[in-house]
Amino acid sequence: MPAIIEERRSYVAGRWVDGDGSFAVENPADESTVAEIGVTPLAEIERAITEARRSFDEGVWADTPAAERAKILSAFLDHIEASHDTLVATMIAEAGQPVAYAERAQFTSGLALGRATINLYQSMRHEETNPVPIDELVLGRVALSVRRHEPIGVVAAITPYNGAIIMAFQKVIPALMAGNSVILRPSPLTPISSLVFASAAEAAGLPPGVLSVVVEEGAAGAELLTTHPAVDMVSFTGSTAVGKRILAQAAPTVKRVSLELGGKSAQIYLPDAVDRVATGAFMVVATTAGQACVAATRMLVPQDKKAEVLEAVSRAYGSLKVGPPSDPAAMMGPVINDAARARCERYVALAEQHGGKVTTGGGRPAGLERGYYFEPTVLDVPDNTNPAAQEEIFGPVLSVIGYRDLDDAVRIANDSVYGLSGQVYGKDVAAATAVARRLRTGAVNVNTALFSAYAPSGGYKQSGLDRERGPDGIRAFQEVKHIAIGELR
Fold first, then answer.
1. Marked catalytic residue, from 7, 94, 216, 260
2. Where in the sequence is the active site (predicted)?
3. Is 345 in the active site?
4. Which superfamily does 266-452 belong to?
């Protein structure tokens, strides 16, 4: 395995900053220390905010023509691409991710997303006339009514541990392309890989203050970013509980807050698609160990076929190899830490206390004494009120629930405080699509899936606010200004 990223300092307003102490980043696959990384002094996070404010207000980046911003950001992405070996090795070490996930889902997809986002921004109109009726224009002596999309200002981007790089691409590139200044604060559990964005900023020649990357062990810096009056927007991906705290922290300064939060997504199988359940179940836990907010951890199947579904899914999970990234046969790695594993154990116990049954898994795999592993687990739950069907576990635990008819399936799927994603499978595509249209969720995949810079993601209900990716994801980092233009008389 190649060496990991060597840098251990944060990057603030164009210069590298030594840490005020350090903390250990742990490898969840074997509980070893990946590296000691410096803690950004709180005064330096304050300086990152101040310099971001200055760089934006002076227009050093926001007033740069879009074509020039695109050129610099393309060089920025080129630097990240050239860092392939060390970046992938770092992601594997600090997150315990299988090689395929770090390589394809984060590195390759992230770069493609970044380049496509630049192209998407350039294809959009950022100043256009409003469709005001001519009689209103005449009445107001208006020659032109213009809607202008402008950068929002200083953006705090706070990313999670489970997809540190791909989530940073989703926030940093559209925010910068729109002309904002950005402060990236990665999860303390997986901070090292995000330093590649700092070295890319330096290599591409981003003006000082336009992008800073700050690292911390706790949450004091993040709280400063979410409360500081000089920060205009917080873009956060993580748990609903933390998202609620960020909303409260941002409220006194009326910041814009974009949140992609938790989920308890349902995968619904029409009667003609039950033969697809093993593949659908596999997708929940393979590579991510269920640590994905969009993971469809509720499997809804016809009640009269539930027994055969449980047998098929349990057989599939029982054959799935769990192990460290160094094992090429391993298709699922560890969860991120001991607390995450304990959460899996707690919800399995709660499921059983409320009438659920474990049909496979439910504990720690044999032969893996070190590392935070949990078996891929199938739960037979009697109904959707079971705690394992209501709460986001964020681990490799799947609940199988029977439905009477499609109306009942839709009711069960929508019976959740979350609404981030969903899946519907059916050979009758029209029927499956009709079900998808009734789901109260931000995205639904019917027999397939799409991850693209041109297609949005985001949640209904307590799964979040606003959207990432797609035109809506760019607009999230912009303000709308109306300009009415007329002649003096």
1. 260
2. 260
3. no
4. Aldehyde Dehydrogenase; Chain A, domain 2 (3.40.309.10)
